[in-house]
Amino acid sequence: MQMLARYPRSVGDGDRVGPRAQGAAGRAASRSPAAMARGTHLSGPTAAALLLVVAILGAAAPGMTDAAKILAVLPHSGHTHFKVFEPLLKGLAAKGHNVLVLSHYPQAKPPPRYEDISLVGAMPSLEATLELSHLERLTPFGDFAEITRIGQASCEPTFTLPEVAALLESNRTFDIVLTEVFNTDCFLGFAYRYRPAPFVALSSSMLMPWGYGRIGAPLSSSYSPNLFLGLAPPLSLPQRVVNAAFTLAVNAYWKVFRLTSAYTVVNRYFGPRVPPLEAIAANTSLVLLNTHHSVHGPQPWPPGVVEIGGVHIDDPKPLSKVR
C-alpha cells in the first residue's frame, strides 16, 4: 500500500533550539499564564511539545509576561493530520495562550482562548474525494506527485477566502507561527507576513525529503529511507541506490515545479518583495515530528528536530472494575 493510503505514519528570524531556548523554557513558564494552569492534565508527548513551544517563545521574547498570541496555519484537508496537531493547539490554549487556528476542522465548542478561521469549502474533503483503490495503484513517484498536487491546489482557494484575506489585511500580530511541513510551502507566506515571530514546523509523519535542509538535518540516502518508498532500515546496497536516485528526483521535481508555483502564489498575496521560500524555510525555529526512533529507526537529528510520536494519544483511562 502506498504512502497516501497509509498516511500518516503516526505512533522574524528563528533561532535553532539550543541551550538559550531550553533555558528560557522555565523562565517563560513561570512568567506566563502557563504557570497558572499547571493543573491541566496533558499526555507526556503533548506536554513535551508544549514545553518546546514555550521555550521558543521565551527565547524569542525574554521579556514577555503576557499570554502569547499563536497562529496555527493548517490548511491540509486530511483529517488525520489535524487530529495529530489538535491536542497541541488545545493544550496551548489550556495553558493560557491565545491560539488562532486556520483549518478545515473548526471546533464545535471551542475552548477558552481558542479561535477558529474555518477553511471548510475551500477544498474538498480528502475522505470524500480520494478512493482507496486509486491510492493503492499509485507508484511511489505517483504518490509524491499526487500529494504535492493536492498541496499546490490548496493555495489559491485558501488565500481567496474572505476570512483569510481579512486576517492578512488586519493589523493583528502574533508571537509565534505554527505551520505544517508537508505538501506545499506556499503557506510560508504567513511566516514572512508575521515576522519577526519565530515559526515552528509540524509534521504528522516522517519528515518529507524537502524538509531536511531547512533545519540543517543530514539527508543520507544510505540510512534515511525515503518515506515514499516504504523501505525499512538497514538498507541493502541496491536499496540505497534506489533510495538515493529517487530522493534526488523528487527533490529536483519539488524545487523546479512545486516550489516555483508556490512562490508565484506567495508573490501574488504577500507582495513582490517576498524572499525565496527556501530562505524563509531556513529560518524554521523548530520541527516537531510525529515519529519515534523505535518505529522509524534512529536518525541523526539536530537539536531543532524533536520527535513527539504519540502526541495525539491520550493517557489511558482506567478500566471499569468487574464484580
Describe this entry's structure for a reader:
With 323 residues, the protein is an alpha/beta fold. The chain has one domain (3-307). Helices cover 41% and strands 10% of the residues. The chain has helices spanning 3-6, 19-31, 44-60, 79-94, 126-129, 132-136, 140-153, 155-159, 162-169, 189-193, 237-270, 277-281, 293-296, and strands at 69-73, 98-103, 114-118, 176-180, 199-203, 286-289, 305-307. It has a 7-stranded parallel sheet, with helices on one face. The radius of gyration is 19 Å and the shape is globular. It starts with a helix and ends in a 16-residue tail after the last strand. Mean pLDDT is 83; it is low at 1-40.
Write a concise keyword list for the protein shown above:
single chain, 323 residues, alpha/beta, 13 helices, disordered N terminus
Short description:
The chain has 323 residues and is of the alpha/beta class. Helix content is 41%, strand content 10%. It has one domain (3-307).
